[in-house]
Amino acid sequence: MSNTVVYIVDETGENKKLRSYLRSCQKLSTRFILRSARENKILVNGEALHLNYKVSLNDKIEIILDKDETQDVFGEKMDLDIIYEDEDFIIINKPPNLVVHPTKSHINGTMANGLIYHFRERGENTIVRLVNRLDMDTSGLIISAKNQFTHSYFSKIMKTKDYTKKYLAICHGILKEKKGIVNLPIYRESEDEIKRVVDERGKESITEYEVVEEYEDASLLSLTLLTGRTHQIRVHMEALGHPIYGDKLYGETGDEDIILRQALHAYYISFKHPKTLEFMEFKGDLPDDMVVAIKKLNGVTSWLKT
User: Fold this and answer.
1) Which of 9, 24, 20 is nearest to 51 (CA)?
2) Most exposed of 4, 170, 182, 254 (fewest Cβ within 10 Å)?
3) Is 135 a catalytic residue?
4) pTM for the whole structure
5) pLDDT in tens, 38-79
């Protein structure tokens, strides 16, 4: 059975050209509409019609999403922690120290290699379309869309209130204010520089935080990204004077006895399903190395299972 998305034309779309209906009423991208039309994958009442066709009330519009695709990433068998999967997207709880996508220095052994193997084992000729990315040393939830429609949908909602992502971070010290919003611009001084800084020349960057647990001179924070700048949480926590444990770029030296990477975990994502618009939320368990770090800080955590 084909993977399709279906729309029934109501009064707001009546008499619009098919192209305009899909663009203005259903908020589909022009690129997606044109590509689907070229491949005769847009059907009106079962027929492939021209994009200039004027839709009528109660017309049934189907867009076929099935497509054989290839990608310059070869499959590798991998033990992926799959949180959720359907015909439109998959959510992985990425462990620390795993690169997300092949690079010049990491040609194989990446999460993308594992995903391609998983898709082919299921008989799916889809490719890896990452909705969000995480640094190699950051653990947590990553979404990969299985078709262009779904990827376009996520791209559209990621900067709206319909999409929420939250992180857990173990930070140095005890915060005076137990919750708040950090609104500090983040700037990259040069293209060759990896590190970002707080600077008025930078882009607006907003992080909401709340202390959820306190230990011996350490705190576990839940952080919500209201903007999506590179290294945003790490930069903001350094600016507050409470850098993340294990953060070699923005943190303090001497954390190696506690944890060997930044103690940052993307634990929560929520959104509406791209087809059904059903509200969905997902949580990923706190990774073992962060649990061990909390114990070393003489703490006890309730975040062992979600």
Assistant:
1) 20
2) 254
3) yes
4) 0.86
5) 888 889 998 888 899 999 899 999 888 877 676 778 889 999
